[in-house]
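Pipeline run #58 for the internal structure catalog. This entry was flagged by the ingest filter as a single-chain record with no existing model, so it goes straight to prediction. Upstream metadata was stripped on purpose; only the residue string is passed forward. Reviewer on rotation: M.T. Logging verbosity set to normal.
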Amino acid sequence: MKGSFKLGKVAGIGLFIHWTFSLLLLFIIFVNYRSGYNILQITWSIAFILSIFITVVLHELGHALAAKNYGIKTKDITLLPIGGLARLEKLPEKPIEELIVAFAGPMVNLFLALLTSFFVTVPENEELLMTQLSGGINSHNFLLNFLIVNLALAIFNLIPAFPMDGGRILRALLAFKFQRHTATKIAARIGQLLAIGFIFIGFFSNPFLIFIGIFVILGAQMETEYTASKYLLKGYTVRDVVMKQYQTIDANQPIKRAIELLLDSQSKIFLITANSQPVGTLNRDQIIIALSEKGENTPIVNAMNKNLVFLNIETLLADIFELVYHNKSNLMLVMENNQLVGTLDTENLLEFILIKEVKQKGAYAN
């Protein structure tokens, strides 16, 4: 993710922090200062925020390690001001696998809450609880706050709505009876109904519920569209969408040659060759950046993407859907018997999905 800085690796998984996380720390310092807290109290508040983000990392690691058991790798984990983001290479599609992977995160929070409960005395009633929590984070209520936040994170993530873990758990349970795209649609609708309730309650109590409601509605819609698109690709292979006509440019040509082809054709991504062999790809954004920073006479080899992605022509489209999506700005090379036979890009795949959607609606109409 752009704007992220690598902190290191945990269990072989890259751990990153986004620069906006620093804004959160500055905000906490500002709020505590405005409230009249001293340096020690502000330090306790910052330490608590850091402990919560360590908890978020452990939550995401729970998902990652559970997914690893099914041969699914995690690319990285990024810390954001709103939480953590673990990028899995793909989502588990077997119901039992998705159920275990989705449960793994909240179970980490419940375990941390249980572990913390051995070192803290929970007040007997609400009045004593509020008294102990008043006055901000300090040495006396640090662990109590930590326990409460972990319980809250577990409960929040178990809400049966996308994109929370609870939505994936609900989908996995439904998938034991329904096909995955149908289970996704049902789970998404249930989540959106809950979201409408959040928004309604938010107008009369906590405005933050409105934000959560909108977040759930958008997340559910994205998950539904993604799963439906993948279902439409079922049974089709790369052979069905391969583009056998594609534009090539020699790597030693200047950027102005790519500009000429960009303006004179419908092509937005080009295959770059050297001695008639593919050595990279070049898209419109890379052309504009090279033109702006290096001028029109700079060789294409200095601007192209050298990381080539190869696809076998017999590979099922459903199996490479995530790969194509993550390479949406690149041109992928299609191989048959170790020979280049064509290319594939995200735009062509989306057009294929659109045509299948229209045909499917037409079949239902008839």
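catalog note: The first helix runs from residue 21 to 34.
catalog note: The beta strands are 4-10, 13-18, 74-80, 83-88, 248-250, 269-274, 277-283, 310-312, 332-336, 339-344.
status: ready for reviewer M.T.
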